[in-house]
């Protein structure tokens, strides 16, 4: 009986080495069935990482061109396919679209996100407000009506870049059909590029007042529950004034959490978790936002959260343990602006 061949995907990846301040290029082979990787240094043509197992925190859906994957404390940018076989297979299985959810469907943002993420991969979140010129440009090229054009200028919209799984049971158009009059969706590569460029050039919508910083952690994004948490926050009556998806490397994660060093147990594990993939940062506004939202978030201790507030706190509902506790939120009011600026100004650049 012949031995089963382990399917493999080949990618070109880049890693920025901070010590010599050089970008290094590798050929990464991902073994799909055994969930292992190996890497070859392209410049030296030498084995850099022998075939090694991946943790369960990393899924096959993270391997796509334009994405990032954290392997052994190194954040790798996946910049291209490594061979035609991988390109033909993965390009056939997925395509990309860009989407703008207008403020008219703000109350449904979380629900829409969850319905999308159940079968597809959201690779970028960013709240934006278009200026008159941008709104006119996109309206002309996508033939939008004046109603949508005005909404894009007057209010915050949520930009999403989505990798569509063409093998999924749910069609993206079926998910969005209920909201079609209040969203903008790309129908071809030209429209996709246009929406992406507008989103990139738009300034963050953070207000930096009466707010707290909330970060939906990588383990929640990977388990496809980010939409559920956003929906919970909106339904509690909070205003989400800014959204931005981020990849924290280990240095950035430690820098952001530095004020909590010596305060929270397992600090190093929290640093690793925050740098373990895509996070979604939110600026959440309310009266006395920091203290009010801490109650909504629930205790740091997940055992306590699940015992005392199992259905009335985010950590009680979605936390797994004291490190994978679903979200970070600002602990002290005096730190709120600093944390929001880190996520929506410093990291955005």
Automatic annotation (TrEMBL):
Localization annotation: Cell projection, Cilium; Cytoplasm, Cytoskeleton
Domain DM10: 5-94
A single GO cellular-component term on record: axonemal microtubule
Keyword flag Lyase: no
The keyword Cytoplasm is annotated on this UniProt entry: yes
Keyword list, A-Z: Cell projection, Cytoplasm, Cytoskeleton
Superkingdom classification of source: Eukaryota
Pfam families for this protein: NDK (PF00334)
Homology family: Belongs to the NDK family.
Official protein name in the record: DM10 domain-containing protein
Organism: Chromulina nebulosa
